[in-house]
Amino acid sequence: METYSKNVCELKHKFVSLYKGNSHTTEILPNLHDDSFLINSDQISLLHGFLNANPIYSNKISEKISNKDYTIFEGDLNNYWIDSIKHDASYAPFYTTWMLSAWGLAIEAKNQGFEQIVDIGSGDGRIAFCGKISGLEAHSIEIDENLVNLQEQISTKTEIDFKPLCSDATIFDFGTLSAKKSIFVIGGVPEIGEVLAESVIKNVLEIPHFSDSSFVLTGSHSHREFSRDTSDFGWGLLIKKFQLSVISAISLPTYWTMDQKFETPYVFTKKE
Predict the structure, then answer these.
(1) Distance CA 203, CA 169 (A)
(2) Which site from 8, 25, 146, 268 is most exposed, i.e. has the minimal number of CB atoms within 10 Å?
(3) What is the pLDDT of residue 231?
């Protein structure tokens, strides 16, 4: 996955240097099979289908980068961002990863032998969608009903059922999910996502068939002066509290790092 991460991050930097538009939200996908992104032609078509079916995006531009053909998707997530913070139990506003970043998380989960991926605070459901088309069982848990409606629209249009569910993940009964080898991807960077992460990990580990589950934590390279934790990309104390071990960490582009030289680290952990 180090090579994959390197390739996606290099694409992001090339894209940022070339892009002349002023869209609030942008995505870029290869148009053809490309071994650099561990994706076949059918899967590329499905990723394009997700963004084409997603009302966040309203315009497409063809672009050639390093002699390869790409499509740039332009859009605006402001309306969904505003809705996402209206809930008292919402611990992180809705921002998007890149589609290629979501794909990378799904591929890493599959490479590590997981059978089921559960996307917590799933936004538009892209990580669960990528998990499903990679061959994993997938579930998408999101508290905001408008985002869940968005996911259901995408699921219907793409004919990919990644099981969107409207629920507060901090009180969700994870015992209702299939007893498969599972990995839980938790949205929210440290300091704003701690309550969500702690609640989900605690509740999941209390379920007998999930007692040895794994969790992906969205880390950060930047730490506020008053931050109490700078280890493991901001999650060191939580990892220690729940006796987790770090399996791997991969850096991938997200919406909030588009104008930065660094990326977002995703920390893969497992119950010891």
Answers:
(1) 9
(2) 146
(3) 84
CATH superfamily of 77-271: Vaccinia Virus protein VP39 (3.40.50.150)
**In one letter, which amino acid is 237?**
L
Q: What burial class does residue 54 get, using C-beta atoms within 10 Å of its C-beta: 0-12 exposed, 13-18 middle, 19+ buried?
A: buried
Half-sphere exposure of 229 toward its Cβ, with a 13 Å CA cutoff?
18
What's the rounded Cα separation, in Å, for the pair 80 and 181? 32
Q: What is the DSSP letter of 131?
A: H
Strand, coil or helix: 224: coil
On whether the pTM is more than 0.85, the answer is: yes
Of 266, 195, 261, the closest CA to residue 13 belongs to: 261
End-to-end Cα, the chain, rounded Å? 23
244 contacts 270 by C-beta, under 8 angstroms: yes
Q: How far is CA 136 from CA 53, 80, 131, in A?
A: 21, 27, 5
For 125-129, the CB contacts below 8 A with 24+ separation are 125/150, 125/151, 125/154, 125/155, 125/162, 125/164, 126/50, 126/96, 126/97, 126/99, 126/102, 127/97, 127/102, 127/185, 128/162, 128/163, 128/164, 129/50, 129/102, 129/154, 129/155, 129/158, 129/160, 129/162
Residues 27-45: tens digit of each pLDDT: 999 999 888 898 999 999 9
